[in-house]
Design brief:
Pnp Oxidase, Chain A; 8 strands
């Protein structure tokens, strides 16, 4: 296992977060119970954050509307894996949503239009963990 630099995680990490893989987002509720769900995500090196596009009615958004939560996103492909640890928030800011939608379309495919219901979860990284091959 490797702990990667938050500012320059390396080419292995950067390549892995652009490949088309799904991940698991886990939010830790204030009572300590986890909420885990499969997601697509994109990495913003500029923000040092993982972004998940979603909609206002999702459980993850409802949990985050109550306040920030500790969170992880983990992606795995055979022996390669990464985990982004940090603090998650949710936003409906139109610019953040547009940027996240564009990045998602590049990595996966254009998402369904959610209009005013669009939300973006930002997981600001406090630690990056990865398989040794990515470190």
């Amino acid at each position: 296992m490797a702990t990667l630099s938050l500012t320059e995680p390396g080419v292995g990490f950067s390549a892995f977060v652009t490949e088309r893989h799904l991940a698991i987002l886990t939010l830790v509720r204030s009572n300590g119970r986890p909420h885990s769900t499969p997601v697509g995500f994109t990495w913003s090196g500029e923000q040092g954050a993982a972004r998940v596009i979603t909609w206002s009615g999702s459980t993850k958004v409802k949990l985050l509307e109550k306040g920030t939560l500790l969170a992880t996103i983990s992606q795995v492909d055979g022996g390669r894996w990464l985990t982004v640890e940090g603090v998650a928030t949710v936003t409906d800011d139109p610019k953040v949503c547009r940027d996240a939608i564009s990045a998602y379309a590049d990595r996966y495919r254009p998402p369904k239009d959610r209009g005013d219901e669009r939300r973006v979860i930002l997981l600001k990284a406090t630690r990056l963990l990865a398989s040794a091959s990515l470190g």
